[in-house]
Design a protein that fits this description.
Largest interface: A-B, 72 and 86 residues
Order of helices and strands of chain B: HHHHHHH
Number of helices of chain B: 7
Distance between the termini of chain B: 60 Å
Distance between the termini of chain A: 53 Å
Number of strands of chain A: 0
Radius of gyration of chain B: 20 Å
Shape of chain A: elongated
Largest sheet of chain A: none
Radius of gyration of chain A: 17 Å
Oligomer: heterodimer
Shape of chain B: globular
């Protein structure tokens, strides 16, 4: 921790976040889009842990703990919604799920 | 010292490459497996950052529970692969990549503009103490006891919500 500059960790975090954004925008499978959101949450976690570790403050790690809780809840509810949509439309392609579009 | 750099290089490379592989594989199951690899690399990075508790939780909760849930749903729905990302709607996808690149440039600019490590004292002992399960547990049950209880309610609500949403005749 001591010798590696903090910016390197933040760069990895920034890159992973951008890859998550790209994935949400270019993938058409709802479950993969969901996994990209998890990737973005994780990149934010990496940034939080980096700051927490370099500042010697446990608050960042407690926050990561809560982010994980929310991510777990989000994954459970989101996947249940995807299953419900699949039951009704037999697809999870987000180009075909457009009932809110007019 | 040198070992630290080697570990950081390897883990960082695995994290970056697996995240790119995840969004480019056409098969969703391969995407999920690359995401698991990414989570393991992140857990290694957390260990390098002296965050032992979070590293363990990352492996158990993310790589274990959440990704198994994803794989389970993928297998249940039996989803076919998407066409390769280079085919179909290429202009839209190019736009998506341009937007992501803009986001990346913006964040990198902010990182170096704010120079977060400038003048930061290096306190290894404080950093090690911050990652101990004892420290985090004390914080959770004293300063953050209200959010902690709220998180419990959130998980309960999510469990019930998931059950109701995934029920067979949900209208």
């Amino acid at each position: 921790m001591s010798s590696i500059p903090m910016e390197l960790y933040l760069l990895i975090s920034a890159f992973m976040f951008s890859v998550g954004v790209a994935g949400v925008l270019i993938r058409r499978n709802a479950i993969v889009v969901f996994m990209c959101v998890e990737l973005m949450l994780n990149s934010a976690n990496l940034a939080l842990i980096t700051f927490s570790s370099y500042l010697g403050d446990p608050a960042g790690q407690v926050f990561v703990f809560f982010v994980m809780t929310v991510a777990a809840a989000e994954a459970a509810v989101g996947l249940a919604i995807i299953i419900a949509i699949f039951r009704n439309k037999q697809t999870v392609n987000i180009d075909e799920i457009n009932i809110f579009k007019w | 010292m040198i070992l630290e750099y080697i570990l950081f290089g390897v883990l960082g490379l695995v994290a970056v490459v697996s995240s790119v592989a995840m969004i480019t594989r056409p098969n969703p199951v391969m995407s999920a497996i690359f995401l698991v690899l990414n989570f393991f690399a992140l857990a290694g990075l957390y260990l390098l950052l002296n965050a032992q508790f979070i590293a363990v939780v990352q492996v158990i909760v993310y790589a274990g529970a959440i990704m198994v849930l994803f794989l389970f749903v993928l297998m249940l729905l039996n989803i076919e692969s998407e066409p390769s990302i280079l085919k179909e709607k290429r202009r839209l996808k190019a736009m998506g990549i341009v937007i992501a690149a803009l986001v990346f440039i913006q964040i990198v600019y902010l990182i170096f503009y704010s120079a977060p490590s400038e003048g930061l004292p290096i306190e290894v002992q404080k950093s090690i103490d911050a990652g101990l399960i004892e420290t985090i547990g004390t914080e959770l049950y004293t300063t953050y006891v209200l959010p902690f209880l709220a998180a419990g309610f959130l998980l309960l609500a999510a469990t019930i919500g998931a059950l109701i949403l995934a029920k067979k005749n949900f209208e």
